[in-house]
Automatic annotation (TrEMBL):
Entry keyword set: 4Fe-4S, Iron, Iron-sulfur, Metal-binding, Molybdenum, Oxidoreductase
Family note: Belongs to the prokaryotic molybdopterin-containing oxidoreductase family.
Gene3D superfamilies, per database record: 2.40.40.20, 3.40.50.740, Dimethylsulfoxide Reductase, domain 2 (3.40.228.10)
Positions of the Molybdopterin oxidoreductase domain: 110-480
This protein's record includes keyword Metal-binding: yes
Chain ranges passing through the membrane: none
Names of the cofactor(s): [4Fe-4S] cluster; Mo-bis(molybdopterin guanine dinucleotide)
InterPro entries: Asp_de-COase-like_dom_sf (IPR009010), MopB_CT_YdeP (IPR037951), MoPterin_dinucl-bd_dom (IPR006657), Mopterin_OxRdtase (IPR006656), Mopterin_OxRdtse_a_bac (IPR010046), Prok_molybdopt-oxidoreductase (IPR050123), YdeP_MopB (IPR041953)
Limits of the Molybdopterin dinucleotide-binding domain: 632-738
Protein name (database record): FdhF/YdeP family oxidoreductase
Organism: Lysobacter niastensis
Pfam entry (one): Molybdopterin
């Protein structure tokens, strides 16, 4: 990480020598060069651990180096030799820690023992595990209703911990199980479940080797799923058309030098990734998808046999896209008719196409409509249930998909609850619980007063930061299961506890020996993960053990053998096999090298929707309720030295940013139009019906982004996102489309 604060233009390909240099810096900065290097050799290996970074799947057979630069940062930060000890907490008040930035908090190292907040000293003090569990149990059992408690889950939680956690919460009596999915791919789940009968993507890694075209919407794989670049590189080299739609020019989508290619590394070579790169305006993707579908229908390039056999609603859909007006499509998409027809032509020429998307699609008011239009595009040409084709929502957190599969969902299906109740002999609650936005409102309205988080950084990851912080501070008790110090520990209830857990890279020793957990990646591969390093401290517990001991303390009359189950995680998996469909014979199947693929009905062109068919849905552009008079729209993004709200460093190499976080990317046209200059300091104000929200002191960075569009990093700009500003139906915060204005910083 550079000390200098500077902005330049990055002209090198993504990856390459700079990726190796940055990886070395990450290991050096965490003082784990040798330990880290040894640990990385086990990353994403059949007998190793699953990278605690993103959910991109592992190649099979595995290469020796099955990790990327950002995987190195994730592993180095977990395996770090730095420790946050009781002495650290004794030295620093919560008020002082609250004034430090997220990078500072992350850089302090691993938590070492359970801590309890002492209001008198405004500090965290050590507490024993039994006392901690008794405190939580006491608070939970003192509530008038279990629905006054909220149990949040971050996507790093393993399947075994997630299954036990949802079981505990439901035996306790509530479905208040919000999770980070609510803030990322909930829109994908809502859209695809209604349209195709499954909320997951249907493609596998092998499909990337067979696709003739890969369309990528609202995703920056170079930073958020870096190993995806290797698949795209190989696809590009074999002539597959890669078409990118992203308001920002992202280096990883333009050119990539594979650090694992001696030819590219020694020969200074690289591979062009996107054959076509379009920059729609923020929120323009529904118009883009509608235009592509219009061209396909008008050129009659549809798969009539597939449509007739497997779908419903085609005629009405076709009529609606034929009626779409080109002027409106150009205006709403920010692209020209020629560009849209060119892209549609590439789509039509391809006999097998994969559509990928990320948060740039899901975090918008009309994201469900956009995703259903993208899926309709696939249905028009039968691009599902055949090799090299299908929908591919690329998940963020390493097990976010697995957690949902294990029952972490505030709206569980009756069938799931029936199976769970039958297996564990209790009556699960049937009333749906709070999602993330609902949980915030409930804490703010004092309808909920106990907040328990299994991982994550709720106070930083959520929108409308000031409102969320107020809500969490109104709680009687806040509890965080974490590996590292973060903002949420400092935004606490009257009572607060930090429970430190084992990391993915660490040995999880239970009564029956070292234990492995399982995760499910973005392409429904379920596989084992076993740590190899000694725990960062002797006082850490595994996530499953934390849940089991909490359940035993809170539910003394429960018939579930909590402590026995965590003596050997095979026992948990045997119960999962009884409750979760697709996990039959779980323990044997998951021990196969690389694990097993969870069946996706769409791969057989089976669509378990209400009608038993895949659906075409009409989504006219006109009914865009999110339009506002705001002069600009801002999207929150990650830097290259960041994973979700975890800030590893202050550089964003591919965008030319060094040593800075409070930056705002803006077009040359808007600088001139607004009378502002590159490098000038501004305040950003979001405009919403309930008022204005402002963040101050952002440096303008002239960048290749469409006029009217801005981009800045989260969590710093999450404060601008009104709680009510979310996706229709899915309630995913609309963090990629915030109506704002700029003003010169008073501080400047
Ligand atoms: S692509 Fe994702 S899962 Fe793979 S090594 Fe990189 S960060 Fe980890």
């Amino acid at each position: 990480m550079s000390d200098k604060k500077s902005i330049d233009v990055y002209l090198k390909p993504a990856g390459g020598w700079d990726a190796l240099k940055s990886s070395w810096h990450a290991l050096r900065d965490q003082q784990v060069v040798l330990k880290g290097a040894g640990t990385l050799l086990r990353a994403n290996q059949p007998s190793g651990f699953d990278c605690p970074g993103c959910a991109w799947p592992d190649r099979n057979p595995h290469s020796t180096f099955e990790f990327c630069e950002n995987g190195v940062k994730a592993v180095a930060n977990e395996a770090t030799s730095k420790r946050v000890t009781r002495e650290f907490f004794a030295e620093h008040s919560v008020q002082w820690l609250s004034q430090q930035d997220d990078h500072f908090l992350e850089a302090q190292g691993r938590l070492t023992e359970p801590m309890a907040y002492d209001a008198a000293g405004d500090r965290y003090r050590p507490i024993g595990w039994d006392e901690a569990f008794a405190t939580i149990a006491g608070s939970l059992n003192a509530l008038a209703s279990p629905d006054e408690a909220i149990f949040y889950t971050s996507g790093r939680t393993s399947n075994e911990a997630a299954f036990l956690y949802q079981l505990f919460v439901r035996e306790y009596g509530t479905n208040n199980l919000p999770d980070c999915s609510n803030m990322c791919h909930e829109a994908s789940g809502v859209a695809l479940t209604e349209q195709l009968g499954s909320g997951k993507g249907s493609v596998t890694l092998e499909d990337f080797e067979l696709a003739e075209a890969i369309f990528i919407f609202g995703q920056n794989p170079g930073t958020n799923h870096p190993r995806m670049l290797a698949e795209l590189r190989d696809a590009s080299r074999r002539g597959c058309r890669i078409v990118a739609f992203n308001p920002l020019r992202e280096r990883g989508l333009e050119r990539f030098a594979n650090p694992q290619s001696p030819a590219e590394m020694l020969g200074g070579g690289s591979t062009k990734i996107a054959s076509e790169y379009y920059q729609p305006r923020i929120g323009g993707d529904l118009a883009v998808a509608t235009a592509l579908a219009k061209v396909v229908v008008e050129r009659d390039a549809v798969d009539r046999e597939f449509i007739a056999t497997h779908t419903l609603g085609f005629e009405e859909f076709a009529a609606s896209v034929r009626a779409a007006d080109w002027d409106e499509l150009e205006r709403e998409s920010g692209l020209s008719r020629a560009q849209l027809e060119e892209a549609a032509g590439i789509y039509i020429d391809s006999r097998a196409t994969i559509l990928c998307w990320g948060m740039g699609i899901t975090q918008h008011p009309r994201s469900v409509a956009t995703i259903q239009m993208l899926a309709a595009l696939l249905l028009l040409r039968g691009n599902i249930g055949k090799p090299g084709a299908g929908p591919c929502p690329v998940r963020g957190h390493s097990n976010v998909q697995g957690d949902r599969t294990m029952g972490i969902y505030e709206q569980p299906s009756p069938a799931f609850l029936d199976r769970l109740g039958a297996e564990f002999d209790f009556q699960p609650p049937r009333e749906h619980g709070y999602d993330t936005i609902g949980a915030i409102e409930a804490m703010h309205d004092r309808r909920a007063s106990v907040f328990f988080a299994m991982g994550g950084n709720f106070a930083a990851a959520t929108p409308d930061s000031a409102h969320v912080h107020e809500a969490m501070r109104r709680c009687e008790l806040t509890v965080h299961v974490s590996t590292k110090l973060n903002r949420s520990h400092l935004v606490h209830g009257r009572q607060a506890l930090i429970l430190p857990c084992l990391g993915r890279t660490e040995i999880d020793l239970q009564a029956n020996g070292p234990q492995a957990v399982t995760v499910e990646d973005s392409m429904s591969m379920v596989h084992l993960s076993s740590g190899m390093n000694p725990p960062a401290s002797d006082y850490l517990l595994s996530e499953p053990a934390i849940v089991a001991r909490l359940a035993a303390a809170t539910l003394p009359r429960s018939r579930t053998p909590w402590l026995w189950l965590v003596e050997d995680y095979d026992r948990i998996r045997e119960r999962i096999a009884q409750v979760i469909s697709g996990f039959e014979d779980f323990n044997r199947r998951v021990r196969a090298p690389g694990g097993f693929h969870l069946h996706h009905p769409g791969r057989e062109r089976v669509f378990p929707t209400a009608s038993g068919k895949a659906g075409f849905f009409v989504h006219p552009l006109s009914s865009d309720s999110s339009k506002s008079e705001a002069p600009l729209r801002l999207m929150t993004v990650r830097s290259h030295d960041q994973y979700n709200t975890t800030v590893y460093g202050l550089d964003d190499r591919y965008r030319g940013v060094h040593g800075l976080r409070r930056v705002c990317f803006i077009s040359t046209h808007d600088l001139q139009r607004l009378g502002l200059r590159d490098g000038e300091m501004v305040d950003i104000t979001s405009l919403w019906r309930d008022g204005e929200r402002t963040v101050t002191g952002f440096r303008l960075v002239e960048y290749d982004i469409p006029s009217g569009c801005l981009a800045s990093y989260f969590p710093e700009t999450n404060a601008l996102v009104p709680l009510e500003h979310h996706a229709e139906r899915a309630r995913t915060p609309a963090s990629k489309s915030i109506p704002v204005r700029l003003s010169r910083s008073a501080a400047a």
